[in-house]
Amino acid sequence: MSEDWQTKYGTRRVRRDPPTLDEAIFAAAGITDDHEQQAEIAAALMGMDYEPVLAEVKKTGRLAARTGTTRVIAGEQGAQRAVVVERRIVRKRIAS
């Protein structure tokens, strides 16, 4: 998915990718602990049907219960924070 618009410098384009199912489930798990509500939230984020998402949420819940691992990023003083990953292209200057 992309969106184009005209500026005085020419056409600009921003690429927008919908979240993957795992990302949507992870986001829903951060909001609520109820599996049915997580499936509703993830299905709404993905634009998918409720039933396949519910099956995946239950599968993810079973795996998390078995391994006991959680994804938490702690910042200063133990506060949770958001992480944004950006790729920056470095242009090297060629000496002549």
Topology diagram in text:
Blueprint: E1 2-7, E2 10-15, H1 21-31, H2 35-46, H3 50-67
Antiparallel strand pairs: 1-2
Helix pairs in contact: 1-2, 2-3
Description:
By secondary structure, this protein is α+β, with helices and mostly antiparallel strands. Helices cover 43% and strands 12% of the residues. It has one domain. The chain has helices at residues 21-31, 35-46, 50-67; strands at 2-7, 10-15. Helix 2 (35-46) crosses helix 3 (50-67). The mean pLDDT is 78.
Structural class: alpha+beta
Strand content: 5-15%
* Low-confidence spans: none
Query: Count of DSSP helices?
Result: 3
Q: What is the end-to-end distance?
A: 41 Å
List keywords for this structure.
alpha+beta, two-stranded antiparallel ribbon
Question: How is this structure best summarized?
Answer:
This protein is of the alpha+beta class and 96 residues long.
